[in-house]
Prior knowledge:
With 422 residues, the chain is an alpha/beta fold. The protein is 37% helix and 23% strand.
Amino acid sequence: xxxxxxxxxxxxxxxxxxxxxxxxxxxxxxxxxxxxxxxxxxxxxxxxxxxxxxxxxxxxxxxxxxxxxxxxxxxxxxxxxxxxxxxxxxxxxxxxxxxxxxxxxxxxxxxxxxxxxxxxxxxxxxxxxxxxxxxxxxxxxxxxxxxxxxxxxxxxxxxxxxxxxxxxxxxxxxxxxxxxxxxxxxxxxxxxxxxxxxxxxxxxxxxxxxxxxxxxxxxxxxxxxxxxxxxxxxxxxxxxxxxxxxxxxxxxxxxxxxxxxxxxxxxxxxxxxxxxxxxxxxxxxxxxxxxxxxxxxxxxxxxxxxxxxxxxxxxxxxxxxxxxxxxxxxxxxxxxxxxxxxxxxxxxxxxxxxxxxxxxxxxxxxxxxxxxxxxxxxxxxxxxxxxxxxxxxxxxxxxxxxxxxxxxxxxxxxxxxxxxxx
Length: 422
């Protein structure tokens, strides 16, 4: 019996009507039973919903933002469907639900839960439009709500998967459907034990594909991107990038750990544990080979460059003339864990602990508040963290030219620098 295949299409691959038509073209000769299609929100919809939340939190008028977002999706539908198609009523219903939710109270205390309830609408709207379009073109798919099978805890915005419960739901609810029809669903979203919407972290749709694949013992996962495969650097930021034809799970995991944006960091581990290959292919050139990530691939020596923007450098200095000890590190990490903050770089000295974290709303001030009685704290915002894997010493100076270096560290295989433009 053929195994289930999982395809994931990101926001760029459904950003407008032409993109949706291209997705349908890709699926035309590939769609079959035992296939799951995972779609992200269209284009920059998630950013748009975050902007609405930001305005609401500041008690500013967000009605124009909401209208623009609705008009954007309606325009896509107008270009894909005839007037009077059922998708227009579905779109209206989803935006009514969204606006009703936005009328509820939002404050700092309930922000994360409110965020998950709002931002997930991007995927719900996108998946409805794509499913209806595929069916209108004669490709029969069944729309399914990912929240029915992706079970998480209640760590809103960074929910952890309940793997056992998720696998049971996938096997009981979706496996029988897949015997007869392909399923189209949403990435990024799940639900907690009380049925409340949760999200898996920004760009979490890749992770959704991996969760579903491992829960259903899939044959492979394919992520469709606007790049030809996994490259050694972001082509939007760096010249002369090179594509990897193959990557081992471990090397791919290392790249995502340091922030390579082509794959969500949590995607590799479950696939590696289950031995499920991951393909990264271009939706602009679907017949090209792309990159295959699997077991038993020799490590590459080509330098891989990862740039993370909007970083914060925080330094905690011990105030009682003692040296940094394990209890100081534990105290800092305890608060980082409580705030669900991930450390992108760590450096210790005799009297201070320096960390680099992503900028997140409220999180820095909450961290400072929790630790100000234990340390003297200093921080810098709006920085970049550059990581080079397998660095060549002769290449490093060009990445520092024109920048002030705030922190730097190197090992045999990794060079990292926190920098800002001068």
